[in-house]
Amino acid sequence: MISRRKALLAGAVGIVVVGGGGVALAVREKPEPAAPPSVDPQGKMLWRNWSGTQSAYPSLRSAPKTEAELAQALKTAPAPIRPVGAGHSFTALVPTSGTLMTLDQMAGIARWEGDEAVVWTGTRLGALGPALAAKGRAMPNLPDINKQSLGGAIGTGTHGTGTTLKALHGDITALRLATVSGEILDCDATRNAEVFNAARVSMGGLGVITQVRLKTSANRRLHRHVWIEPLADTIAKCEDRWAKHRNYEFYAVPFTDLAANITHDETDLPATPPAPSSDDAFLEALKQLRNLLGFSTPLRKAAAKALLGSTKPEEAVGEGWKLLSTERPVRFNEMEFHLPPESQMAALKAVMAAIETHRKDVFFPIELRRIAADEAWLSPFNGGPRGSVAVHCYYKDDYRFLFDLIQPIFLAHGGRPHWGKLHSLTAPQLSKLYPDWEAFQAVRRRLDPEGRMLNPYLRELFGA
Questions:
Q1: Domain named FAD-binding PCMH-type: which ranges (predicted)?
Q2: Which of 120, 157, 259, 400 has the smallest C-beta neighbourhood within 10 Å, fewest atoms?
Q3: Domains 109-218 and 221-417 share a fold
């Protein structure tokens, strides 16, 4: 969307004329956040999540190759037992002093049942796309990032965008759950139906899901269109675009009055050669504008419009698994809440006003998506469709303002948190947001009465 040369040009403009005089701006990159020691005094190796905010020194690392090995480990391994995928969650779902369990060796498509794929949950989303495509099938939708394991993605309610498209767990028709008793339960709408309703979004709190049966769709090519326009125009037209396009989302860019829009629609056009991602250059330009002109919002907005407002639209055609997810080389921390659709734009406007008034350091775009309803008990989309608003913060910047400044806005507009992203809600608040909260807790207590799957964070989250 913007060349690296233009981004560097933005950084070169280090003199701003103020009242006829020159003011030199000294801009320095912040240092890397301090990292914990790679080994603790007892010789235990460090585990750390993608953004660097969560870490632990588990006493045991488990990598079962079969369901039998996994079931035995759940019975005997030191607690708390926490499954881990790619470490893309920002909340403290994984850290444990007990057992860290990866399902990386339980990956791939186990078998096909008609057009439904039975998939091991250690499979990474980025690997599942081409595996399904080899049979002419695809996942109906994909999230913004495809590095997650399938188990981690469904366990936290991970989603893409599209008014007729569900989150990943919404396309699960059956699953197998290994419990701390060593039992493996087959669950669907008729067999162990309560466990099925609870387990689809359960953050690894009931046991470990080993396999899921997924609905798939035909592997169609999609036409991707990306363009920038004034934010006011995007807000005025977004509902029509969500109704018109298979996939639609937009990014509201603070301190620019601009928005980046992205649509995907099915097409029979021939595939185009893949183009290199320009997202990192776009973010670098926004960071340079923040560093150089953060002292003056009017100057920052004027420079942003001059630099970014006339960028040319991007077009691409390819299979969905190649286009729907994108690379995110620049690390960040994130808070995302899911709101009633009718409250989504009001929440966005309040968030933008709060950031532009109180947080001049923010430069990451704010992502808005729309997700169809499903029936999983702890799904944020249980009971009706939702519109998501995701606020990102550069990994070198202080993100604590998200809890004090942004989260109250989301709660005031009826928001539910994304389970893998930053929030500070606990059982008393969450029980009021989810009608099936107590039903979930009853299943959890029955399957794991001693709380072997619960680390301190989950104990507080579930009120255990």
A1: 54-219
A2: 400
A3: no
- Would you list the domain boundaries of the chain? 109-218, 221-417
Spatial separation of the C-alpha atoms in residues 231 and 218, rounded to whole Å: 34
Backbone angles phi, psi at 215, to 5 degrees: -65, 145
Provide the β-strand partners of residue 332.
Answer: 394
Per the rule left: phi > 0, alpha: psi between -120 and 50, beta: everything else, 430 is alpha
Q: Which CATH architecture has domain 221-417?
A: 3-Layer(aba) Sandwich (3.40)
The tens-digit pLDDT sequence of the chain (464 residues) is: 444 434 333 443 433 333 333 333 445 678 999 999 999 999 999 999 999 999 999 999 999 999 999 999 999 999 999 999 999 999 999 999 999 999 999 999 999 999 999 999 999 999 999 999 999 999 999 999 999 999 999 999 999 999 999 999 999 999 999 999 999 999 999 999 999 999 999 999 999 999 999 999 999 999 999 999 999 999 999 999 999 999 999 999 999 999 999 999 999 999 999 877 778 889 999 999 999 999 999 999 999 999 998 889 999 999 999 999 998 889 999 999 999 999 999 999 999 999 999 999 999 999 999 999 999 999 999 999 999 999 999 999 999 999 999 999 999 999 999 999 999 999 999 999 999 999 999 999 999 999 999 999 999 999 99
CA 429, CA 415: separation in Å to the nearest integer? Answer: 11
- Confirm whether pTM is higher than 0.70: yes
Select from 85, 88, 129 the least CA-distant residue to 109. 129
* Residue type at 411 in one-letter notation: L
Where helices occur in 359-406 by DSSP H, the ranges are 401
Question: How far, in Å, CA of 396 to CA of 221, rounded?
Answer: 38
Distance CA 423, CA 460 (A): 13
Instruction: State phi, psi for 424 to the nearest 5 degrees.
Output: -120, 20
What are the residues whose beta carbons fall under 8 Å from the beta carbon of 348, sequence distance 6 or more? 235, 252, 366, 368, 389
Question: 109-218 has which CATH code?
Answer: 3.30.465.10
Asked if residue 355 lies in contact with residue 365, where contact means CB atoms within 8 angstroms, the answer is no
Token pair 């050669």: residue: 273
SS3 175: strand
Which residue, among 431, 459, 365, 455, has the nearest Cα to 95 in the 3D structure?
455
Residue with tokens 């980046």: 260
The alpha carbon of residue 232 and the mean position of all alpha carbons in its chain are separated, in whole angstroms, by: 26
